[in-house]
């Protein structure tokens, strides 16, 4: 319970900090308010993508916790590294938002964002693989099919984000677009293909159908 409470707090703070990037862009611009609001459209896009990304990560974190019976010090440390990357996300988000329109410095901004997401994917996969290795932390009644399905859904994260990040060396704009497309994919995947597992309030896992 303490682990989930702390993690939820970090997710909430990271998501909240994203809006400060939008607020900062409005204050940095000059001219009429209407023009400033239109001029900072990249901040709205970056905010939306990163907020939804954090929401997906939080949802997946809840799924992981529902499968566990216990935690140990190693798992807690791995969770801290994951939360560290989540809390860091507002910074590269602002870099992308500030350089998306002019694009002169978009390459390092896209690389910073991609590196953050790639490390986050590694932290997430490491956290999950450690928990399920030898079923060391899993619930006794956890369904092997559910565990396998979760593992299968997490495995593409690292290579996908790494590929999108490396594309920034060729086309920073294409890299940024890919980050948005990855987020959209996970939203669609969770909405249409994530209903076969129901997480009950007790943490019990029930397979639909």
Radius of gyration: 19 Å
**Shape by Cα distribution:** elongated
> What proportion strand?
under 5%
Q: What does the average pLDDT come to?
A: 84
Determine the structural class based on helices, strands and strand pairing.
Answer: mainly alpha
Low-confidence stretches: 193-209
Summarize the amount of helix as a percent range.
Answer: over 70%
Largest sheet: 2 strands, antiparallel
- Give the distance, in angstroms, between the N- and C-terminal Cα atoms: 30 Å
Number of helices, counting only DSSP H or I runs of 4 residues or more:
9
**What's the total number of strands?**
2
The quaternary state of the protein chains shown equals single chain
Neighbour order of strands in the largest sheet: 1-2
Q: SSE string, helix = H, strand = E?
A: HHHHHHHHHEE
Secondary structure elements and their pairing?
Elements (H helix, E strand, L loop, with lengths): L1 H27 L4 H7 L1 H26 L6 H16 L1 H10 L6 H27 L11 H11 L2 H10 L5 H22 L3 E3 L5 E3 L2
Antiparallel strand pairs: 1-2
Helix pairs in contact: 1-3, 1-4, 1-5, 3-5, 3-9, 4-6, 5-6, 6-8, 6-9, 8-9
Structure write-up:
Helices cover 75% and strands 3% of the residues. The chain contains 9 helices and 2 strands; from the N terminus they run H-H-H-H-H-H-H-H-H-E-E. A two-stranded antiparallel ribbon has the order 1-2. The longest helix is centred in the N-terminal third of the chain and has 27 residues, at 2-28. The protein is elongated.
